[in-house]
Specification:
By secondary structure, this protein is mainly beta. Helices cover 5% and strands 37% of the residues. It has two helices and 27 strands. The strands form ten sheets. It has a six-stranded antiparallel β-sheet with strand order 7-13-6-15-27-16, with no helix packed on it. A hairpin with a 4-residue loop joins strand 3 and strand 4.
């Protein structure tokens, strides 16, 4: 049913309207209770009374009344003129693929204002500016170092000249393959043996022993957790708060806009892309300022610490190498202190029998155990596929009220 206006009076900023049968709201002439044309081509359109009536109707609408002379109901503002009750602004409609405009606040999370009733109901919270703390890898610690030594040098030779002569005829005097250092007569050399045979040169004039084998040593890390530290989870420095606002039932001069309450400082009207991910703001719209928001868990954390390990090095082996004239290790000739770092050469009485040998007092001297591992690897990356794209009105605060 068409509603009719029969009286309209403008008093300061308040507008009072009465309804009755008569002209339509756009036709009524409050000066002489007659109807005015709605077609600008009508000769009566420029009638002074009709011109003034249209001005009064526009003033009524600006004060919060619709074309039928009705004012929307705003809780808490009953009986007040609309321009006294709430300040509004015409906000451009959302472009394609975006939801309707909503109030958006972006700032430090400690200053989050929440959604006050005058702004709108709570919409959601997003986050940005990822803060990634150090992963806090633990220091790796090693247990005690342990090691063992082999009593068998790589080679033992009898030389047909003194140690000072570098090149001479040699005879193998090595120990058995799996020698444990006990007395052995293998590769014995009888007294007076000549090298080469018939040369008159005694085979045994000096004895050469290579360095002992390096120790077999090792150490183990003291067990510690291999952390993907929950206490060091990434945090967000910026909060993106949205509220659900309802448009005000008042017309805008631009049909591509709707009226919303003017927002407090720090708030903007923004539209949200309907698809997840990062999207460009439409260049042809008025919403060109991009804001990206992530969920609280909108990141992929692959950080971890490498496992702890230990590397032993620097240990040495020592032993006493005894040489005997007989084959039972009873007729002592001489000895040398062998180690795992250098060879030894000792001169003998030329032509003496070298019948047996043994290695005693084998000792392992520990080196150092250096920890390895405990290093941070991996990264923290924002999950752009689940991000939310907001585009904010670039003309906020400078557009038509």
């Amino acid at each position: 049913m068409e509603r009719k206006i029969i009286a309209l009076v403008v008093v300061t900023s308040s507008v009072f309207v009465a309804l009755a049968d008569g002209c339509s709201a756009d036709q009524w002439n409050g000066m002489n209770n007659s109807c005015c044309p709605t077609d600008p081509k009508d000769p009566e359109w420029d009638d002074p009374f009709c011109t003034e009536a249209r001005h009064q109707l526009e003033a009524a609408r600006d004060a919060g009344y619709d074309g039928a002379g009705c004012r929307p109901n705003f809780p808490g503002y009953e009986g007040q003129a609309m321009d006294e009750a709430i300040e509004s602004v015409c906000v451009p409609n959302a472009p394609d693929k975006f939801d309707a405009p909503q109030p958006l606040w972006v700032g430090p999370k400690a200053e989050d204002p929440g959604c006050a009733p005058e702004i709108g109901a709570f919409g959601g919270r997003g986050y940005n500016d990822l803060v990634v703390p150090d992963p806090g890898c633990p220091a790796c610690v090693c247990g005690p170092i342990e090691g063992s030594c082999s009593p068998r040098p790589n080679s033992i030779h009898l030389r047909a000249d003194f140690c000072e002569v570098l090149q001479t005829y040699t005879s193998d005097f090595s120990a058995p393959e799996n020698w444990d250092g006990s007395c052995t007569s293998i590769n014995a050399m009888p007294a007076g043996a000549e090298c080469p045979v018939g040369s008159g040169i005694p085979c045994a004039q000096s004895i050469y022993t290579s360095a002992l084998l390096d120790p077999v040593e090792g150490c183990e890390p003291i067990p510690v957790p291999v952390p993907k530290l929950h206490s060091d989870s990434p945090t967000w420095g910026t909060r993106v708060l949205s509220c659900n606002a309802t448009p005000i039932d008042l017309s805008c001069p631009d049909h591509d806009s709707k009226r919303f309450a003017v927002l407090p400082e720090g708030w903007r009207h923004c539209v949200r892309h309907q698809e997840k991910g990062i999207h460009e703001c439409p260049s042809g719209s008025k919403y060109t300022d991009q804001v990206i928001a992530y969920s609280n868990t909108g990141y992929t954390d692959t950080r971890q610490c490498t496992e702890c390990g230990c590397k032993a090095a620097g240990g040495a082996c020592y032993g006493t190498f005894n040489v005997y004239e007989d084959e039972q290790c009873t007729k002592f000739i001489q000895n040398d202190v062998l180690n795992s770092e250098t060879y030894e050469c000792s001169n003998l009485m030329p032509g003496v029998a070298v019948g047996s040998k043994e290695l005693v007092d084998l000792t392992y001297v520990p080196g150092k155990c250096e920890p390895t591992g405990g290093l941070a690897i991996g990264t923290v990356e924002k999950n752009d596929a689940d991000a939310v794209t907001w585009c904010c009105w670039a003309g906020e605060g400078v557009g038509t009220k």
